[in-house]
From TrEMBL:
Organism this protein belongs to: Chryseobacterium camelliae
Residue spans crossing the bilayer: 20-41, 53-71
Stored InterPro entries: DUF1003
Keywords: Coiled coil, Membrane, Transmembrane, Transmembrane helix
Entry superkingdom: Bacteria
Protein name: Membrane protein
Pfam families, sorted: DUF1003 (PF06210)
Signal peptide: none
Segments forming a coiled coil: 75-169
Length: 169
């Protein structure tokens, strides 16, 4: 089986080389020179015209048969490559769909995180407001207490003055 595969690969490489050469400028020049020579041989009297046409027709027919085979081999090989590429494209499309789904999930997660951040900020703002309110209440209580203490001091001073007056009497 190994020899068959190796032989097949060698034959495919030869066929690829021939197909490439047939489609090249050197091939065009060689064929042109061959046809010119073929038609010059009867004019120079080296070969009869009918024999030259018979040989030329046979050679060209054989060449056409082999070229058709080589071209079909190239088409088959190209078709196999196209099928492989199509499979690769399908795999890539599946990967893109999966990536798109992942991106959608990530976007949803980002939205959830943003909502959580907004809630945390709102909570902090509410805590700041309640803390400020507590501070204002405490300050007003302190001021109120200061006023009451001052009033009590004044009362104590009055009472002290009264005690001092009573002691004098």
């Amino acid at each position: 089986m190994k020899n068959y595969t190796e032989n097949k690969e060698v034959l495919e490489k030869i066929a690829d080389g021939i197909t490439w050469w047939i489609g090249s400028i050197p091939s065009l020049i060689a064929h042109t020179l061959f046809f010119i020579t073929s038609f010059l041989l009867p004019l120079l009297g080296l070969v009869e015209f009918d024999k030259m046409l018979l040989i030329l027709t046979t050679v060209v027919s054989l060449e056409a048969i082999y070229l058709a085979i080589f071209i079909q081999m190239s088409v088959n090989k190209s078709h196999e490559k196209i099928e492989d590429i199509q499979e690769d494209i399908e795999d890539i499309q599946e990967d893109i769909e999966e990536i798109s789904e992942d991106i959608e999930e990530i976007n949803e997660d980002i939205e959830d995180i943003q909502e959580d951040i907004e809630e945390i900020n709102e909570d902090e703002e509410e805590e700041d407001h309640s803390e400020r309110a507590k501070n204002v209440i405490l300050k007003s209580n302190v001021n109120s207490n200061k006023n009451e203490i001052k009033a009590l001091k004044d009362k104590i001073q009055e009472l002290q003055d009264m005690i001092d007056d009573l002691k004098k009497d």
